[in-house]
Amino acid sequence: QGPYEAYHYYDILETLEERGFVVIGEARTLSNAGRYAKGVAKQVQTLLDAGVPSYQITVAGHSKGGLITLYAAALLGETGINYAVFSGCGRAGTEYRRDLNKFMKLQSEPIEGNFLVAWAEDDQISGDCDDALKGGKAVIKNLLLPAGFGGNKVFYNPEPMWIDALTAFASGG
To answer: Which of 133, 21, 151 is nearest to 73 (CA)?
Structure first.
């Protein structure tokens, strides 16, 4: 729905910048999650090669962007990178679980990194990512947000309830 329609994408980026983060982001069009993740992984690898410590890098995504974040984590295989997945793992029994199941089928190695996984209590299509992250060196922090903010639409705006969690997580908290 684009950065100027339902999502307030640029407001989110601006909020993160106001909190002192260097933000690299782009409004993504329709894309294949696995292929798109290769570009994200390449950007992260460029930062690592330039000497940016892994613990200072956070890859974050909402919905399909959350799934892209999982793919990027799998490609990178870095223990110290932070990954934030917002409403990115399809809930069992929904059509959105197919994408997560496909990811898990393709993923042969356990995923590493630090993960903040957040979804809303009234989100009908998303849930935790525990199945996709089990068996590896992933450190997982699940965050269940309260109902009443439109399910996964809570991530359309820079709401303090998730922005505060993201900035604390990205800062090592």
So the answer is: 133
Q: Which residue has the tokens 């190695």?
A: 109
Q: What is the pLDDT at residue 30?
A: 63
Checking if the pLDDT of 18 tops 90, the result is: yes
Helix (H), strand (E), coil (C) string for the chain: CCCCCCCCHHHHHHHHHHCCCCCCCCCCCCCCHHHHHHHHHHHHHHHHHCCCCHHHCEEEEECHHHHHHHHHHHHHCCCCCEEEEECCEECCCCCCHHHHHHHHHHCCCCCEEEEEEEEECCCCCEECCHHHHCCCEEEEEEEEECCCCCHHHHHHCCCHHHHHHHHHHHCCC
- Torsion angle, alpha carbons of 47, 14, 122, 170, to 10: 40
Two tokens at 124?
Answer: 């009908």
Report the mean per-residue pLDDT for the chain.
Answer: 90
Q: What is the pLDDT of residues 96-135, one digit of tens each?
A: 899 899 888 888 677 899 999 999 999 999 999 999 998 7
